[in-house]
Design a protein that fits this description.
By secondary structure, the chain is an alpha+beta fold. It contains 6 helices and 11 strands. The longest helix is centred in the last third of the chain and has 15 residues. Helix 4 crosses helix 5. The radius of gyration is 20 Å and the shape is elongated. Strand 3, helix 3 and strand 4 form a beta-alpha-beta unit.
Amino acid sequence: MAALSLREQRSRLSALLDVTSPVDAPTAYYALDHDPKRSTLALRTDANGAPLGFVGRFQTGIDLFRPLVVMQCRHAELAADLMAEVLTVGRHYLFFSNLNQLPLVGGSLQLSNERILSIYVLDLARFKPEINVLVRLKTASNGTPMAEISNSGYRAVAGVNWQSSGFAEIYVHVDPEVRGRGWGRSVVMACTERVRASGRVPIYLVEPSNVESVKLAESIGYRDTGARQIFAEALYLGHPARKAAQP
């Protein structure tokens, strides 16, 4: 049987994800929308062509030397088989998937510096746009919206890490010297409004221990979905069963 093209793989694996849900939005972006030239997928289907799981390897701007690994599998054996198709033994990666996938990677990936992120989504009923005249609206080189406040060499900036047809993930950075002035809230508010106006749903990923960032998101109108995403450094050790079979 001929290998499926990336387009065909994406068409089939879409049944594994709810593209209307903020819970699946980060995984769905990479699986379905990330630049095809920088995306590699391993997909397993049943006899009828229905998807059972996938593992993807993606080149991103997060780290030029460590590709991002994203997956959605139903059991550990399948995850191990698919990782063996797209990952190289001894190479370092970044692992970014829904937390429910974490139990499936043992023996294949050695994880370190794990960060568990809460997935927040904008609640339109709580969102009340505010105008801050200090905010400058900009557009990033990839066409996504940005908002910035800059003064005396210090700045706060909010933008979009990625966007699909339905969602966009907001990020924010505020120089330490100007934190506490409300700049972060103002730029996130402005960027959120631009994403909302584009017809997309803004989401915000944050570690629960980052109290200030959580307060910022909630003050604007983001709510915790209860879902968690893991981001970690990863070393691929190889297929557990194949390693065990070696003399």
